[in-house]
Each structure stands twice: as structure tokens, then as C-alpha cells.
Input
Amino acid sequence: MKLLWFTLLLSPTAFAALPAIQPFLDQHCMDCHDREVKKGGLDLSALPTDAADAAALKQWVRVFDRVTAGEMPPEKKPRPAAAEMETFLTGLCTDLSAKHAAQKGTVLRRLNRREYQNTIHDLLGVSVNIMDMLPEDGRALGFDNIGEALGVSAIQMQRYMEAAEVALNTALLTDVRPETKQQRYSYDTPENAGNFKEQWHKLDDGAVVFFNDGGFPRTVLPGFNAKAAGTYRVRITGYGYQSEAPVAFAFIVGAFSFNRGGDTLIHSYHELPCGAASIVEITLPLLRGDGIKISPQRVSGPNGTSPRKNGPANYKGEGLTIQHVEIEGPILDQWPPRGQTLLLGEAKVREVPPVNPKMRNQRGFKPTFVADSSNPTADARLTLPVFLSQAFRRPVTAADAEPYLALFDAEFVLSQDYLIAMRTAAIAALCSPEFLYLKEPVGKLDDYALAARLSYFLVRTTPDAELLKLASAKQLSQPAVLRAQTERLLTSAGLERFITDFTDGWLNLREIDFTTPDKALYPEFDHTLQHSMLRETRVFIAELIKNNLSVANFIQSDFAMLNGPLAEHYAIAGVSGQAMRKVNLPPDSKRGGLLTHGSILKVSANGTSTSPVIRGVWVLERLLGITPAPPPPGTPGVEPDTRGAKTIREILDKHRTLESCNGCHRMIDPPGFALESYDVIGGWRDRFRSLGEGEFVKTEIEGRRVRYKLGPPVDAAGQLPTGQLFKDFSEFQKLMLAAQDRVAKCVIEKLLIFATGREMGFSDRSEIARLVTESKAKNHGLRDLLHLVVQSPIFLSK
Output
């Protein structure tokens, strides 16, 4: 057996340092991990040493880590001498670092579909939904911008061509600046009177009251449909009706019409006070064809009554009064669109009148446009390289531009149409590898590649003019300049896109809609609350960045970002309204830190019950940077008992009697047990809810008595693998605070993964350890941490 192993070591693909570690393996490892024993499923004699075998390298890294941690050899075996251990670890570390360093620059990173849309919007100066035209992106390590997961298929290339054509048509096929209008709309229309007679009530002054009796009234604003994409300013005038408190409403936009549904999105939540009329003003981008819907939330009648019973005029319940809605737009920053100017230069676009003017009134009529150029071939050679330089995020050479100019020439010969030929060349550019991929040279990034990496990291789009200017002067790579530009982007409006995309991957917030809480068990849950949950987490992280607060706040914080619905859900008094604000928490608060956020607690549970296993894995992976081993094949899953007959702790205690499960569950279960005091929607609980056995409760939600019962008491006690005990979540938080360096390390790794589009590997470890040390000296301030990441050699190289 040892002869076979020695032969493997001397093969051309073997680790260069393995002869130095062979004695250690022979003496301390092979008895349990050879071809005959394979303890833990590991056969070191058959484990490849080829640097190209990523899975095998990960196994060797695991060997290194377990020996370093003192887990191997096991306690019952003779302990290696210190000199033996050092020789083994040094030799293996050297070779693992070299092999990983040789691999990490080989994968190109494609723009994901969100980055593609952001880039198209900023490059062409248009607003058009092309993201939904593209296939879903692959994910790895929780993120959807990892190079290895972002392949390109023939179908995907076809979709890119279609998306590019739609975007370019929006920029090019227009010759008249859309008129900015200010118009007033009312809900007092004959259609509303007929369609919604059971849900609305017209007042003497022409205002309309809408009642929400458990559903969403079809409050699409009649008569409005965005005629052009752009920014719109909406002013809603109204007040709460028959209500002592302000009445909340959802502001919804999308492609619906007056009598039918469509693709819609809740943009935001607002409220109108009772009594005198007030104005809510909202400024937002709309796509062409978008409509608006204003839907009252959480309004109810006495004892759950409905306006249908005696008619809306006699109804005594709450409602939302809308007097009128004023809309101003589209408000355009630039005309013609940037893409038209880049591609056509001084050439003017004009519509070709149809042969028969009556054709304009026919359904499906599409106007024809041309671009006037006295010398199309010469003009193309002036403007197309400028467009390519902006699209490719770097200067282009004559050789770079030649294929696109040749495509222009060929198309122009066929069509004799300057506009069509330019559009064809531009479509090719927007589907080319130079546009779709971040072309980063192996080794240190040049200034243009650095500009792209920084921009896609912090604002999720193509570099702006200032970054490209600094790149052109080769100044961006200077540490002081890079720091200043990082600071500029951290204060820009685009940072909101970074927070959304990063938290979607890191914290798994993209799965917030994946489960729908059981209405019988959690009748207090609604979309208003879920929307507030997402805002809480994202605004909380924005607050940490803005004020450079410590990542220790991820574990425990003396403040929370709350609005009225969240504060009510969390049983925190003194907060009302839809606006988020910073709220100081008392020392004994059950809130504070990411693990108490409703969004986190919802994405780490299903819609009916919680699982300490799922939440424990979430804490390990997302906050501590530990990936537990998957369960052995054939291991039965752990299913909570929703009838309330058994607690999840009782079920897991039995599960842990399996030797193959106990090792991992000792690490996974404790943080999950600590979080058992929070239900599937983040509410605090002392007892589990049940639809089976349990104690009846008299609680009412919106005038209706709840159906759930109170089951067994919650036990949030546990024991960490270190032996430390905690009796509840508060004590668990205190123990976690001692691990804040580990949390900082995890955040640094997640940021670097998101910024570089690759997994952090063995050769990155020493640099990450240095970043953690420097971050600790700065109290792990999140803004400082972001600067450290950007200035690190990992960020500055491929």
C-alpha cells in the first residue's frame, strides 16, 4: 500500500512539496485513510494530486485545515511532534498556494443580466426592460456574478441579439423629444362607478373613497399610461377616511390597463393622514406603457364588516380618500438619447411619412425612420469607434474597430440605409465578448480593467466618464486616487444597487418570496410587512456604511432601522408611519443585529415552521464563513411537527444519535436553537404556534379571531462546540460578539467574491488574514473595510 502511495507521489502531477510530507502521511494518516479503510470516505492513496482537479485540491485543503485545527490525527491516536507538524503544514501550504494561484486567473466573467441592463441603460441613455428577455443567470457561492457559473449558450446569444435590438431601437428610432406634460387625473369616472360600486364611495366634492375589505381594490389610475419612458413626478392628494390613524397605501407600477392585470411591481408604501387633505409626492422612472395603481393597505371595518353588506355609503369602516393625482413627465436629462448621439454624431434622425397618412391610425403601425448623412461611410468611421470605446470600456484600436466597420459596409451595400447599417454594427458590438465580458488581464489589472471592476462592484454598471478619464491618464491605480473614487461611489445613488445585489446573494434575500407564510398560523403577515423587512435590512447596511459602524452590529446592535409596520410587528412602541428611521433600542431589547431582522428569519424558514438546522447552516455560512459538510447519502431529513405534539429539539436529539450526523450537528444546531425564539416571519415567541394540539387564544387580527393555538414552550438554550453554554438568544449574541473577527473575515471574503467574480482560495488566505488584522485596528468599520477590500492585491489583480 505504501509503495503504491509513494508511486503516486512521484508522478508528474504530484505536489512538489509532497516528498517532504510523506513521512507524516505514512505515520499519522494512512492507517485510517487508505484504499482498504477509507474512514470518513477519504482514501488518500487514490486522491489525485493534479493541480487541474479542483475537487481534489479542495480535499487536500480540508486535510490541511483539519490537521491545523488539531482534529486530525484524532485524540485517541499518537500526537505528532511539533517539528513534524510544522514540516507537514509548511510543505502542503506552499504547494497548495502555488497551485491555486496558477488557477485563479483563468476564468472570464460575463456580465449577468442585471449588469447587462444597467450597462445598456447608461450606455444608450434609455429606460427599457431587457433583463426579462434574458435567461436566468447561474449561481455559485450564493451570487449570480461568478465567472464559473456564467456560461453562454446559443439560445442566450440569440436573446442578447434580441435585447440589443430592442434597446437600440428605443435609442435610435425616435426623432421628436417627448413633451413633458403636467396632467391631473381623478378616480371619479363612469368605469369606476360601474366596476367598483361595492368597494368605493363618491363624496360630494368628487373625491373617491376606496375600501379594502380583505382584497386589493382595482385602483388602477384611469386615463394614465406613460407615453414615453423617463422620470415622472407623481403627486397624490387625499386623506384617511373614517380613521384615527393615517391610512397606508401601496404605490404600484406596471404594464396593466384599467380592466386587466399584467407585470406589476410594488414600488413603495406611503400613507395619508386622516382629516385634512395632504400630498404624497413620488419621483420614479417609468417605462413606456406603464400605468399606476394606488392600493389601500390594512384598513378594516368594525368587527370585520364589509362595505358589501349595506353599501359603501353606509359603511363605517376605514378607507382611503383620493381627491386627485397629478403627474408630470417624462422629465428627460438628455435629448437625443445618449446612444443616438454616440452612434450617429451630427446625423439627424427623421421619420419617413407613410404613403397614406391614415396608416398611422391602424393597429400595429410602426413608423419608419432614417438618419441623414451626406457621407455615410466616412461618418461611420468617425462615430463607430467612439461608440465601441464606450461599449468596451477602453480605447479601441483600428484593428478592434475594423470588423464592425466591415459589417457596417456590408449592411449598407444591402440596405442603402445609414441608420440600419449603424444599428447592425452596434448590435454586433453589444453581443461581442468585448462587451459581454469583463476582459481582465492575468496579473495586475490595468487602469481600465480596474475602472470596470470598481464600477461594477460598487454601482453595478459601466464606468462613468470620471473613472474612464482617470484610467486614460493612468491615475486610477494610484492608492490615493483609488480611495477618492471609492469614496465618491460610496456616496452615489448607485450604491443602492450594490446593497440590493450584494445582500440578495450574501444574505439570500432574493428568496424572500420563495415561501408564503401559512395564513392560518400567521394571519398578521402581509406584503406591507415583507416590503418593510427588506427595507430594514438594506437600510441598516446603508447606515453602517454611511457612518462607518462596526460589523459587530451584524451580531448585536443598539439600534434598528424601523417603520410603523415593523415596530408593531416587533412590539416596539413610539414608531409610526411608513418611513424608515433609526430607533435606539433599550439594553434588554429582543432586537438588534441581522439575526433579529424579519427578512433574515423569513428566508431561513419555510412558511409553516422553523428548523434549527436550516437557520444554523445560514448562520455558519453567511456570518461565520463556515460551510458544513453535506449529510451522508441516505440520511433522512428532519421534518418539524406542525401539529405541536413534538418539539424540533426532541426530533433533533433523536437525529443526533446517528454517529454520522452528530459531528456536524454539534456545530450546526446551536445557532439554530438560539433563533427558535423567532417564528417564520420574525416575530418573537415564547411558545410555538400550532394548528393541532395546544391552548386556544383570544387574539384578533383585523377584527377576526386567529385560528392557531399555542403549543409547547420554546427552548432556545444550547451549547457551542467549544463547550460554552447559553440559555437564550441574548446570551448567544454575547458569545457571538467574541467571534466578531470571524464575522469580519466572512464579510471580507463575501465582498471579495462579489467584487472579483471568483471563489476565494488557498492562495488568498494570507491576504485575507492581513485584511482582517487591519480591519480590527479600525474597529471593523464597514466603510473602512470596503476601502481595505478595494486597495487589496486580490481586488487589484486577476
Observations:
- Residues 82-103 form the longest helix (22 residues).
- The chain is about 40% helix and 15% strand.
